[in-house]
Amino acid sequence: MERIGFVGIVLDDSAVAPRVNEIIGQYADMVTGRIGVPDHERGRAVIGLIVRGTNERVGALTGRLGNLPGVTVKSALTTKEP
Questions:
Q1: What's the domain of life for this entry (predicted)?
Q2: Taking phi first (over 0 means left), then psi (-120 to 50 degrees means alpha), and beta for anything else, what does residue 81 get?
Q3: Which residues on adjacent β-strands are paired with residue 73?
Q4: Domains of the chain
């Protein structure tokens, strides 16, 4: 069952951003919105995604992102089908 929700991604080092973007691109079909806020002075960044997908697919995305060094991921999904 598809749900709608958000994924918050914090990059402690923006050098990992290309890999993060590559992974997000592999799940582009379920990303309905995105915002990125870089902190150029400190070399960090925050990315927010609005997603629509199954628990399994959102979990696969967040799991892959969370396995990257220096990346923290949090997500929340609706409890009802959209």
A1: Bacteria
A2: beta
A3: 9
A4: 2-77 (3.30.70.1150)
Per-residue pLDDT of the chain (82 residues; tens, 9 = 90+): 999 999 999 999 999 999 999 999 999 999 999 999 999 999 999 999 999 999 999 999 999 999 999 999 999 999 875 5
Token pair recorded at residue 21: 């973007």
Q: Which residues pair with 54 in a beta bridge?
A: 2
Structure pTM? 0.93
Yes or no: say if 38 and 68 are a contact pair by the CB < 8 Å rule: no
Residues in the chain: 82
- Which contiguous run of DSSP H or E holds residue 57? helix 55-66
